[in-house]
Amino acid sequence: MVSNTTLWDLEPHTKAKHDLLVRYLNAWFPVLSRYRGRIVFLDGFAGPGVYNTGEPGSPRLALETLLNHSHLMNMSHCEFLFIFNEHHPKRFASLESVVADVENDLQLPNNIKVVTSQNNFSILAEDLLGSLRGKNLAPTFAFLDPFGYKDVPMALIRDLLAFDKCELFIYFDFNSVLRFSTAGNVDEHFEQLFGTDEFKHAPPSGDPRRGEFLRELYERQLTDFCGFPYVQSFQMVNRRGKTGNYLFFCTRSVKGLSVMKEAMWKVDPSGGYKFSDLLHGQTVLFEPEVDTSPLQHELASVFRGQCLSIEDIEEYVVVYTPYCKSHVKRKTLAEMQRRNQISSPNQRTRNTYPPGTLVQFN
After folding, report:
1. Whether the predicted model's global pTM rises above the 0.85 cut
2. Looking at the chain, which runs of residues are DSSP E strands?
3. Quick check: 226 and 232 in contact, CB under 8 A?
4. How confident is the model over 169-185, as pLDDT tens digits?
5. Apex 270 CA angle, 268 and 271, nearest 5
């Protein structure tokens, strides 16, 4: 089992997860660095830092995303703190070796600091909270990818990431939750995982509604209990065609949500927010064309008779629909304008929507 080994193979869904992480950090680093001060990348379950055949793990990927960033010089006023935590002794030894290699290969600037830790994640998080002494945690991106369901209590997520500009990207072991959450002998672990005992009301095993109940409960707790108004999930399907886990991205920023949704659409151009190991490596001759007709219908219905700014329309799409900001102008509004479903009182060029453009829904 992976949970008992030091190194293991890089599975396709793990590669997809890393793609999402790198795409997001590429945008997150320069955006957050504008606030000066310090920003933190916390990898709570960093693993050995490398896979069986040499592929880099999340610690190296995160560091290289910043160190190779085209805007690195413009971020020199900000301190970046990377915290890589791994409890397993042999994996921790491998992790330290990987971090040392990165530091030697890429020569870290003075404003980039790396800390490695060999702790149970709960202990590490409690120590971080204790060190604040009433102060706010610096803007933090917490990447939490544990094995199983025992190591990340919902209450700890709430307490550690309660501060402004803190975000979470967390692995939810859907397969284990589906199998064991109402078994009765591990209720304590699931009460900590969900931050409630509502999981006990899930439909029984075999009921097709069971999985959706448990997934929705976890998502709702991230929103209501932890205080993240924007939560976006991404489904991972294993080689057997079953959902193995979900990734949940949690933020208080519409901008952050927008960036992550764009990253998810890159990994799954169909817009299903799903990656399947079964389809990995298959030749795709044509990338699927985005069908925005449902979005056009929704905007026409919701905003009929109203005049809104392009910025308000983009925010609505990001927050309330499966679509992204990049789908709004050319693929949606321009099509609607060609059919005279919308007009604009201040538009200089038809079918273009620069900042400040007003859109009248007919």
Report:
1. yes
2. 38-43, 79-85, 112-117, 140-144, 167-172, 230-237, 243-251, 274-276, 307-309, 342-343, 358-361
3. no
4. 999 999 999 999 998 89
5. 80
